[in-house]
TrEMBL record:
This is Carbohydrate ABC transporter membrane protein 1, CUT1 family. It is a multi-pass membrane protein. Belongs to the binding-protein-dependent transport system permease family. The lineage of its organism: Bacteria, Pseudomonadati, Pseudomonadota, Alphaproteobacteria, Rhodobacterales. Pfam families: BPD_transp_1. The chain crosses the membrane at residues 29-54, 87-109, 121-141, 170-195, 216-241, 280-300. GO terms for cellular component: plasma membrane. It comes from Limimaricola pyoseonensis.
Length: 308
């Protein structure tokens, strides 16, 4: 009798339980604005941009089809090719150096040093500044008349030369210095949070086994922090693709076209040259470059988890 009654109670509860589409209905209603924003603003505007990149729109968008003409002109423009080359140099160097510097600073702070809070604030402070402020600050620092070069020459080294922003071959590295200075603090904080999540027993076991600190980081700690490194890489990559403010504040794309970036090319094509279709074509190519990197990574990441 008891079994029958319990079965009846379970059946009644199952009947009263809401169907799957109506579960957590309040949470779903609350998330509607975010979903609509993502669909309309991000997806909708992306599709709109791709469509109008095949037109001959100038000052105003118009559905006058031109096919691949905008893309042919884009890839035949030296300024666009130079911007891609600069983006590759800036992207590879900044990704490697920011990760290396951020992790090194985090590892040093994780050793429970004195005044850790002060050091953490100092290293993170550049990230609180806007890119325009950072660019202007480093433009002054790298200025040969009153920056690093002038300061060292005032110490007696008259032959010292350090003027990257006025050198076509070195200007991208002057922008890179400012980007690394601003971005390393955020990555340091992310890495420090990951290191603080490592169980202290792992370090004790490594010491008992006689494993050195560097080898423990390489063989044990870094593999355990794989999700943290993925998050850091995504944040760095997002900053690399849209780098614009630093270039405008430091060089405005000069000298000549030696510090051009894709985002600067897009903005100049759309607003300075009043050629919307050319700007849309460049934006679409930037999107394609992101997808080329993102899709294989997402497939390996999530397909691997499913197989696991």
């Amino acid at each position: 009798m008891t079994i029958v009654e319990s079965d009846g109670i379970d059946l009644a509860r199952a009947e009263r339980k809401p169907r799957r589409p109506f579960r957590n209905i309040s949470a779903k209603i609350a998330s509607l604005p975010m979903v609509l924003t993502a669909l309309v603003v991000f997806v909708g505007c992306t599709v709109w941009t791709v469509i109008y990149s095949f037109t001959d729109s100038k000052l105003l968008p118009r559905l006058s089809w031109e096919g691949l003409g905008q893309y042919e002109r884009l890839w035949g423009t030296r300024r666009w090719l130079v911007s891609l080359e600069n983006l590759a140099i800036y992207g590879i160097c900044s990704m490697v150096l920011i990760l290396l510097i951020g992790f090194t600073l985090a590892a040093l702070l994780d050793r429970k040093i004195r005044f850790e809070g002060a050091f953490r604030t100092v290293f993170l402070y550049p990230f609180a500044l806007s890119f325009i402020v950072t660019g202007l600050a480093w433009q002054w620092i790298l200025n040969p008349d009153f920056g690093i070069q002038a300061s060292i020459r005032a110490m007696g080294w008259e032959s010292f030369v350090f003027d990257p922003l006025n050198s076509p071959d070195l200007v991208i590295f002057g922008i890179l210095i400012a980007g690394i200075w601003q971005g390393s603090g955020l990555i340091m904080v992310i890495m420090l949070a990951g290191l603080r999540g490592i169980d202290e027993d792992i370090w004790k076991a490594a010491r008992v086994d006689g494993i050195g600190t560097v080898k423990t980081y390489v063989k044990v700690i870094i593999p355990m922090m794989r999700p943290v490194f993925v998050t850091a890489l995504v944040l760095i990559a997002a900053g690399i693709i849209k780098v614009y403010d630093l270039v405008v504040a430091q060089t405005a794309g000069g000298p000549g076209i030696s510090s051009q970036m894709p985002a600067l090319y897009v903005m100049d094509a759309m607003f300075k040259n009043q050629n919307l279709a050319q700007g849309f074509a460049a934006s679409t190519m930037m999107l394609v470059s992101v997808l080329i990197v993102l899709i294989p990574w997402a497939y390996l990441e999530f397909a691997g988890k499913k197989r696991g």
